[in-house]
Amino acid sequence: MDVAFEIWDVFSRERLLGNPLAVFPDASSVPEAQMGAIAREMAHSETTFVIPRAEGVEHEKGVRVRIFSKAGMEMPFAGHPTLGTAFSLWTKRQTRTDVEGHCIVLDENIGPIPVRFFDRHGMWEGEMRQTDPVIAEVHPPATLAPLLGVAVSDIDPALPLENISTGRPNVIVVLRSRDAVRRVAVDWRGLDGYFASGDRERGLYLLTREGDRWFARKPGRTGDDPVTGSAGGCAAAYLVRHGLVKEGDRVVLHQGSEVKRQGEMVVSARLDGKRVTGVMVGGSAVLSARGVLTI
Question: Is the dihedral of CA 75, 79, 83, 84 positive or negative?
């Protein structure tokens, strides 16, 4: 059986940059038991499978999408797979969930995620609303700095190392310079030991400001993630929560230069009293390849 797939470069306006994603736009014939194996075969950080449903069901509940990691594990939510899959569907004009055709709702395991499209400077961008942030523990710089391979003085002392989730949890670490961000070399065994009693899905997201530009890095055990949509939502919540940007302001996060896959996310969040809400993450995506997988 042959099944069509696409490769999208997400959070980029140029091919071969940003974060690559494999999308199966019609996975109705793919056996559920083989989805994990296919994701391992595709070998991107994530692969998505779209399960078409009746038009009425999709208008009511959204387009059913399942997300698998390159290890073959199903994920409740991930940012760049959400945006890339929405682009794949929307550019074909196959699925519309509003009258104008500018919004698609993806029905993921975490729940419905709406993605709305805008024409910005002659190129389309998609923007997703993520779940309201869950704020968890704060970590001492003196403990985390050696696990990150940097000095305590590299960490901004005015800003907490705070665990935030807008779908997937990340400890936000604000460093004093891009040089410090580049120098981070995580002691994963030590970090796993420190986090042994916490959420196993907890990640690290590094931020720094250079002038009026924000830069980010997402280190991982097998290498950096180029541009991380789920962590971008955490960053938006953090920046607004701590007064680093004004609520509602759209901030560009630059990520991926360490792995030569530069990309950009546009993030924002709002305040309802002291509670952060309205977390938005957006950007562009470009189709870089089409193919057929025989299973």
Answer: negative
